[in-house]
Specification:
Radius of gyration: 22 Å
Strand content: 15-25%
Oligomer: single chain
């Protein structure tokens, strides 16, 4: 804490945003004067914030009080001194500090998303392995729109015109929003976020930011903060940035592709490669585990009703857990690389997923394959869209049922977490079903 106090003083910080991520990935916590933050060395929050839905509702009382203390007590949130960042867009000098959640006995709280990722990383550490990840975040820029019943429209760029047509990898189309992206890059640099390449994706005003590879917990923190950063940069320029999985009809969805590999801690060498550079058995088992368990863990990568709108045939998103080398029609792509850099790109998670949980689930599936020595199917040559085996659940309801009945997820992530997560997502799904869509009014109102 002395190092943290020095860091705050050097930057003349006056306020601290104390943050935890809820299940959705929303930043919850408190804003406090720096003097109080240092005196209290953390904060207290109701444990119930970890069971909030995206609308701020909670699960039914009977389940609520079976998962939480009946007295609705506070949890202890302690700052992680390695997760301290300035807030570049704040008017006053402000820091944001990511906290970890503990109970009154000092035990990590199972419902915490960040703690879940830590649990998975501990499993790898016990085997002498160190996973490495590199997320890729897709998102849309749109006009500001106050009416949620109206469809989203492309924003006006520097030219004074809206983008039209497909502009995949267009430099000029991306340059239409240079002032916004300059702020984004500047603010990310100030925070030390390891963002790399910016590209224009296939959708209208759809972009992608790549992160440099590194430690999974650090990268999950950075994705968590990047979403805040990009939204603030967009609002400064009177634009909206959205990470919804499928925000616009007839446009591609937005993904969070996760590149993952595993190193041997003792040697620093990739366990995915044999001495001659060929694919190792651990690499193939890792893929086998992802194929076997991703269909059970899918709600952690596709957490919302809207998430499943990505999973339609011939819409740029994979609809399988097939694998193949340099094959983007597969859910699990193996990019061309050197043996030491051999990795798997999990193309199934949506941009709307909580990064802590999506990374934790993706790595856990691979870990289970490695320790259980699961063999993958044969790699796909050509179009994986035509393959019918290993199919995924294509509705949130089906996916939640499979997750709920997966004994391996409950064993490694805990009964409280799996039960609480599924319950929160079912409440959200019920809320969604209460809303009548424009499609129903358009086609059923006078026709049935």
């Amino acid at each position: 804490m002395k190092d943290l106090e020095s860091w705050l003083k050097e930057r003349r910080i006056t306020e601290v945003e104390c943050l935890v991520s809820d299940i959705t990935g929303i930043a919850r916590g408190k804003i406090t004067p720096v003097s109080k933050f240092m005196a209290e060395k953390g904060m207290r929050l109701p444990e119930s914030v970890l069971l909030q839905t995206v609308t701020g509702d909670y699960v039914e009382d009977e389940l609520y009080y079976s998962l939480l203390d009946p007295a609705d007590i506070d949890m202890l949130c302690r700052p992680d001194i390695s997760a301290v960042y300035p807030v570049p867009w704040a008017i006053e000098p402000t820091a944001q500090v990511i906290h970890d959640c503990y109970d009154k006995m000092g035990n990590p709280i199972e419902l915490s998303c960040r703690n879940q990722l830590k649990r998975v990383l501990a499993l790898y550490a016990e085997q002498g392995w160190k996973p490495v990840v590199a997320p890729e975040m897709e998102f849309y820029l749109t006009k500001r729109c106050e009416d949620p019943d109206l469809p989203l429209l492309p924003p006006i760029g520097r030219s004074g015109r809206q983008e039209t047509g497909r502009q995949s990898f267009s430099i000029d189309a991306a340059n239409e929003f240079d002032p916004l992206f300059e702020d984004m890059y500047d603010w990310c640099e100030i925070q030390g976020l390891d963002i790399d390449t910016l590209i224009h994706e296939e959708g209208t005003a759809q972009m992608e930011i790549n992160f440099r590879h590194g430690d999974p917990l650090v990268l999950a923190d950075q994705v968590f903060l990047f979403k805040r950063t990009l939204r603030e940069a967009a609002l400064k320029h009177d634009v909206v940035a959205t990470f919804m999985a499928k925000p616009i009809t007839n446009e591609p969805g937005s993904a969070m592709h996760i590149h993952q590999s595993v190193l041997d801690v003792a040697t620093g060498k990739s366990v995915f490669a044999n001495e001659d550079g060929s694919m190792s058995q651990l690499f193939l088992h890792h893929i086998g585990g992802m194929q076997r368990f991703i269909p059970e863990a899918l709600p952690l990568m596709a957490p919302n009703v809207n998430s499943f709108r990505r999973f339609l045939p011939d819409t740029s998103a994979p609809v399988n857990v097939e694998w193949g080398e340099e094959n983007r029609t597969c859910g699990l792509r193996v990019p061309d690389s050197s043996p030491q850099s051999r990795r798997i790109e999990n193309r199934l998670p949506g941009a709307d997923a909580n990064a802590y949980l999506a990374i934790a689930a993706s790595l856990l599936c691979g870990y289970l394959g490695m320790v259980q020595q699961l063999n993958p199917s044969a790699p796909v040559q050509g179009r994986a869209f035509e393959r019918r085996n290993l199919r995924l659940p294509f509705t949130l309801e089906q996916a939640l049922e499979r997750m709920e009945n997966c004994s391996e997820l409950e064993r490694y992530m805990g009964h409280r977490f799996v039960t609480g997560y599924v319950a929160v997502k079912r409440v959200e799904n019920e809320n969604f079903k209460k809303v009548i869509s424009s499609w129903e009014r358009e086609f059923l109102l006078l026709s049935v």
